[in-house]
Amino acid sequence: MTVLPNLTQAEPIPAAAMAEVTRILETGDLFRYTSEQSPVALLEAEFAAKLGSTYALAVSSCSAALFLSLKALGLPRDARVLIPAFTFAAVPSSVVHADCVPVLCECGDNYRINIDDFAAKLPSVDAVIISHMRGHTSDMDAIMALCDAAGTPVIEDAAHSLGTTWHGRNIGTIGKIGCFSFQSYKMLNAGEGGIMVTDDAELVAKAIIMSGAYEHNWRKHPVLHTPFETWQNQLPLYNLRLNTLSAALIRPQLAALDQRVRDGRRNHDHVAGLLNGHPHLQVPAPLDAEVRAPDSIQFNMVNMTEAQVEAFQASTKVAGLNVQIFGRSADNARAFWNWNFLGETPDLPMTRAMLMIACDVRLPARLTLMECDAVAEVLIAAVTHATAKAAA
Ligand SMILES: *Cc1c(COP(=O)(O)O)cnc(C)c1O
């Protein structure tokens, strides 16, 4: 039997973090605004430089970053925000949290936003959040052309896209604001945390104040200070700050990011090549402008009966491999019909059909190619078994 690697185990935090964590613990300096040179401020400067953005603001999660983005855009209560129907429940939740109304856009079987549905719904919305779900980049050329023409602001949810490029430009820097996550299952792991990037001084000033830079703590951000004078005491303080320990865990990982991205892509493309050799499995190709940074693989089951799908699921389970089919696992937070907090969701047949055939398997960057072979072997054996059985 194939010996599978552990797919859920995190990578160790670089040893370089330890000295800094010890220093912080010895000084008790956990609050970012105790000093101007706090690890949080240093992380913001390093992250902005890495991405090629003017400003960055580190916060408590990517969800908090999305919420603050909507608030910083000044959207009124009940403003409509277009989001992809294939995303994580945190995304519609951040829209609800900001007192806005999510409008769901169809996604195709390549996991990306369907541009026809996007164009049809755009005139009825006030802002757009593009979730590059599982790091699959939607067509940013088409989206930016439509949104620029309509004057509609774009927030990129790049939680799972750190390291992805589009025409050589970093994902998260194409829209007005980009939001990233430091939750444990993302490229940089602080357990929890998030960061937003933008080139807009006014937007970042508002987000900084609302993140909890009370009184004159905004002076500790190296940002144009004029907008702060305007917004001082005019905005609520939501206290969504990042603490210094979390920043100390992230900073040494940032140096390892490029290697992690290369290893993750190598692993993904290797397994994709193997799966695409089977007539019943299909890994959608990246878009031409896109260079991806995957830490998991998604593939579709094609031309399979319900019985074959069930047999495939059962086989992988017996082999000890955790394959999630987005639309078939109970309570999956990425299946829009489970977002009951929205009230009634519209019927989105294209996205629904994709969710019923799309499989999700973690593929961490730390795996060797031999370990990747073991994962692919289990998947191919399971689909071969499932399709042969039902055909007989
Ligand atoms: C993880 C994730 C989020 C939420 O990030 P948090 O930091 O946990 O709030 C949002 N969107 C996508 C696409 C994600 O993958």
Describe this structure in words.
This protein is an alpha/beta fold. The chain has two domains: 241 residues, Aspartate Aminotransferase, domain 2; 135 residues, Aspartate Aminotransferase, domain 1 (Alpha-Beta Complex). Helices cover 40% and strands 14% of the residues. The strands form three sheets. The protein has a seven-stranded mixed β-sheet with strand order 1-9-8-5-4-2-3, sandwiched between helices. The chain has a four-stranded antiparallel β-sheet with strand order 10-12-14-13. The longest helix has 23 residues. The protein starts with 15 loop residues before the first helix and ends with a helix. The structure holds pyridoxal-5'-phosphate. The site of pyridoxal-5'-phosphate has 15 residues, from helix 3 and helix 4.
Fraction of residues in β-strands: 5-15%
Order of helices and strands: HHEHEHEHEHEEEEEHHHHEEEHEHEH
User: Looking across the biggest beta sheet, what order are the strands in?
Assistant: 1-9-8-5-4-2-3
Largest sheet: 7 strands, mixed
Number of domains: 2
Class of the largest domain, according to the CATH hierarchy? Alpha Beta
The distinct bound ligands, ions and cofactors come out as: pyridoxal-5'-phosphate
Mean pLDDT: 96
Computed over alpha carbons, the radius of gyration is 22 Å
* Poorly predicted ranges: none
Keywords: Pyridoxal phosphate
Family: Belongs to the DegT/DnrJ/EryC1 family.
Protein name: dTDP-4-amino-4,6-dideoxygalactose transaminase
GO molecular function, one term: transaminase activity
